[in-house]
């Protein structure tokens, strides 16, 4: 039941990338982190390239796209190799989607305690306990 948030700027004009980006991030999360797409939520937001600063200059001035993608998952549900791969593949795929990106574009995995994270009003640990009772 991951929650994925992505914010990005574009370096060139083009269509709305949000639907494609949401589908990409959901697919990669299912394939690499083995998360159920039916309970995966994705929030994709565009950012003003004049308001995104990288090394003291705006993304617009540098004529580069940039992004910040994060996913929240329950801790201990993935191994290090899976989260490492997710970070690498998301970075590479976002770069392909956006075109030239500033190196200071970030991908983050939040692995959070199952007693502090959930959906539908139930924590992940409570869901697990009910399933295995």
Compile the SSE list and pairings.
Blueprint: E1 3-9, H1 18-33, E2 41-46, E3 53-54, E4 57-58, H2 59-62, E5 66-74, H3 80-98, E6 106-112, E7 118-119, E8 122-123, H4 124-131
Parallel strand pairs: 1-2, 5-6
Antiparallel strand pairs: 1-5, 3-4, 7-8
Helix pairs in contact: 1-3
InterPro entries: Tautomerase/MIF_sf
Protein name: 4-oxalocrotonate tautomerase family protein
The CATH superfamily label reads Macrophage Migration Inhibitory Factor
| Order of helix and strand elements from N to C terminus | EHEEEHEHEEEH
Q: Order of strands across the widest beta sheet?
A: 2-1-5-6
Proper CATH architecture: 2-Layer Sandwich
Helix share, percent: 25-40%
What does this structure look like?
35% of the residues lie in helices and 28% in strands. The protein contains four helices and eight strands. Strands 2-1-5-6 form a four-stranded mixed β-sheet, with helices on one face. The protein has a two-stranded antiparallel sheet with strand order 3-4. α3 (80-98) links the parallel β5 (66-74) and β6 (106-112).
